[in-house]
Amino acid sequence: MRIRLNFGLKTALLYSAIALLAFVAVGAFISLYGGEVYLEGRNSLLIKEAQTAAQLLSNIPQDELKNSATFYAREISAKAGVRVTLIDSEGNVLGDSALEAPTLENHLNRPEVQKALKGEVGLERRYSTTENARNLYVAVPLEEKPPISTVLRLSVPTAIWDADLEKIYLYSWLSVGSGFGLFLILGLFFSGLVRKPIQEIVGALVGFKEGRVTSIRSLRSDEIGQLAGEINSLMSRIDALSRKASSLEEKWNAYSKMEEDGVLILNSNWEVLKVSKEASKILRLTERQLLGKTLLESTLDHNLAQAAKRAVESSTKERISFDNRVLLLSGTTLSASEQEYAILWLKDLTELENLRAIKRDFVANVSHELKTPISSLKIMLETLLQEPTPSPEVQRDFLQRSYKEVEYLQSLIEALSRLSLIESGKASFDLQVSDIRGLLKELHDSLRERALEQGIDFQLELPEEPLSVKADFLSLREAFLAILDNAFKFTPQGRMVQIQAVRQGDWVTVNFRDQGVGIAKDDLPRIFERFYKADKGRGTVGFGIGLSLAKHIVESFSGSISVISEEGKGALFIVRLPFHRE
User: Fold this and answer.
1) What is the side-by-side strand order in the sheet with 457-461?
2) Do 39 and 165 share a structural domain?
3) Which residues pair with 430 in a beta bridge?
4) For the purposes of burial, counting CB atoms within 10 Å of the CB of 64, is it exposed (0-12), middle (13-18) or buried (19 or more)?
5) What is the span of the domain harbouring residue 384?
6) Residue 2 has what pLDDT?
7) Is-contact 467 503, C-beta < 8 A?
8) Domain for residue 223, yes or no?
9) d(CA 552, CA 561)
10) Residue 98 near residue 124 (C-beta atoms within 8 A)
11) Using alpha carbons only, what angle is made at residue 395 by residues 389 and 398, rounded to the nearest 5 degrees?
């Protein structure tokens, strides 16, 4: 009786104190965390809206954006329901959805603007003197990385959010208080009923954790007695499984050391028990996504699951397509005590297959380019060797045509040789610092006559300021000429081809724009491959390595080349080179 009284009084007091502290802590946590989650959600939503608007504005030319900044600010404000401000890199307000831009002061020192000019997302909460209210400001750059020329800023009043936060705090504390009262009443009632058997169960589990397997002795027939019986059964099963796992672990370590490919261990139900890092990488799934599931459940790929079964059951190698890649599966079975397990190896052959495809395409393309001139040479030489000998006029005509075919082959070999040297890094360049505007003017002058003959409007737009770059200008001319030749080749009569150069921070950007037939979506990823001709059906003249050569030349001078095109709407080739300060 004395033990029961001590237990009831002390336990009640102790549990009450603990419960009070726990509920106070939970209430504070829920209030603070709930408020933080709410604010983070609102912040994330505003940041997402700002980034979406910035992405749309980034496609608008800079001059048009600056001239119509107020219009765009008000358009975005009307759709998003927030105040919108456009600011240039000097802090000047280009346009504002609420006020006239000239009436607003310079924003360069605003913290959120400073972060946006560094290419980051600026988030700031402060009092606004123009609106006489506390606002949240989000500023994002229009460009993906510095230098940043234009910043988009959104602002919203925080008064409504503050009212919502007060409601969150109030309801959190009311819920916690009600829960504490109910817990206290029920805790006093049930604490004396479960403490001792729970202590026995905990003691047995602690012993099991330390390696001692002991049974829990309980004469009770209620839920606690059933729990004790289930735990006894579970500990026996875990002990048996742990012994099997030890044997399996030894075999796993042996197999994973012998095989560098991905390895999976599966049970008789085809559920994954163990996964190597390489296997997780090949399947593009985390260990957590794979363990305890079948391959069909985790990958949702019926072909992969069936191929894995065939590989294990028949000990064969299965080659399948998975997630746009080529995989090779092989497997076998192994035994650990009474249960049977399977081991599955995975090998990613995608890169090897791509290399083989590139090699096949290269050989096919070279063969195709050589076949026609060599066949022509053979026919003309056979004609010259016939009896009786052709007339001198025919001989001269055939020799001239043969000479042109030889020149074509020589040009092809020289282009391939130059491309190979540049790709391997063995090409030598005469690097000089010069104004690229001179090269662009010279190209425009030299191609003007061709533009007139084709009826094409050939335009050149250059800034007044120098555009100095460090490069081999003869090689750079070769790259630009390849791009322009491509533009002239696919631009119909009466359309435009344009060269436009501009400095953007530490970069010089040269845009080659045409109003030609454009490039199909499927051809865009391969447009810079050697021998690749997007317009195969038109029988275009050329080797198909001009753009590939241009790409490697530009990249040799720490630059980049990209293309934006849509079929039927022309193409825009963008070349970027580092600006060289004198």
Assistant:
1) 457-461, 496-504, 507-514, 571-578, 560-565
2) yes
3) none
4) exposed
5) 353-424
6) 35
7) yes
8) no
9) 9
10) no
11) 130
Question: What DSSP designation does 294 have?
Answer: B
Same domain for 99 and 23: yes
| Separation CA 405–CA 536 (nearest Å) | 21
Q: Which of 424, 442, 462 is the last residue of a domain?
A: 424
- 169-204 per-position pLDDT tens digit: 676 667 666 666 666 666 656 565 556 666 666 766
Nearest of 102, 106, 79, 78 to residue 90 by alpha carbon: 106
User: Which tokens hold the place of 71?
Assistant: 């219009």
Higher pLDDT pick, 440 / 371:
440
Neighbour count for residue 126 (Cβ, 10 Å): 13
Residue 538's pLDDT is what? 37
Specify the residue for token string 């079964």: 309
Helix (H), strand (E) at residue 253: helix 223-258
DSSP secondary structure code for residue 99 in this structure? S
- Do 279 and 392 belong together in one domain? no
CATH number for the domain spanning 402: value is 1.10.287.130
Q: How many CB atoms lie within 10 A of CB 526?
A: 12
84 in a domain, yes or no? yes
Count of other CB atoms within 10 angstroms of residue 490:
21
Q: pLDDT class for 133, splitting at 50, 70, 90?
A: confident
Q: How confident is the model over 357-375, as a mean pLDDT? A: 58
> Which helix (H) or strand (E) covers residue 425, if one does?
none
Q: Is residue 114 part of a domain?
A: yes
Chain segment 318-327, per-residue pLDDT in tens: 888 888 888 8
- 126 belongs to a structural domain: yes
Last residue of a domain, one of 424, 456, 474: 424
Q: How many domains does the chain have?
A: 4
Examine the domain organization and report whether 165 and 128 are in the same domain.
yes
Please write down the HEC assignment for all residues of 124-176: EEEEECCCCEEEEEEEEECCCCCCCCEEEEEEEECHHHHHHHHHHHHHHHHHH
- pLDDT at position 454, please? 92
